[in-house]
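Key idea: predict the complex, not the pieces.
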Amino acid sequence: MNFLADLWKLQKNDLKIEQLKEDFRALEAKNKLKPFKKRLISDKEVLEAIKTKLSGMKREFKKTELDYNDLSLKATELEKKLYSGEIKNLKEMEQLTKQLENINQNKEIKEDLSLELIEGIEKLEKEIKRREQNLILAIQEYKQEMLKYRKEADKIEEEIFDQELQREQLLEKIDKKYIVLYEELKRNKQGIAIATIKGQNCSGCRVSLPSMIVSMTKAGNTIVKCENCGRILFWHKELEQEDS
Ligand SMILES: [Zn+2]
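Result:
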């Protein structure tokens, strides 16, 4: 019966490999790593954009401070001139006073801008900190998810490898002509080339088998096919109870 039992094992092997490949596809399908990674990249881009904005603001702040200092210097000079008593001409005095007023107005504008920028910078710095912390957590989560996925994928791949190895060993044992027959039936019978006998019925098509066919199958030394579905029939005592 040996070659029939081997063919039966081969089929079990093939079905197991199919199942494992199906598991792998299912794992791939529910894998959320790709959209997760995309989100991380976009979060990082947003963070970089905010950092760039912050740098711009800091530059503007520096420039505003410099402008303010320049204006302060000018104002001091003008005041010195005005109150030195050197200027006797009333018109010139008026002009200088006007100039000083202008400068002081500009100073105020710069001061307001400076305060606004400080506020903006603080706000951005807080936002950057918050986003950086979130990003670190998200990256950790992503790495964990990736490890989990890899672990599951590796497990399935290892099982497939083991099954394929077993298959190779079986193929060496079984006569080539039976393998050709098996493969052909497998192609034409939805992957099930070998059917077992359940009571009096073929497990492949559920049709009741003639007693003679059952006895011949039980003898187990030759290929007996189900007259209805054409599958090779296989009987083994242990299979009487087993679900297959
Ligand atoms: Zn059948």
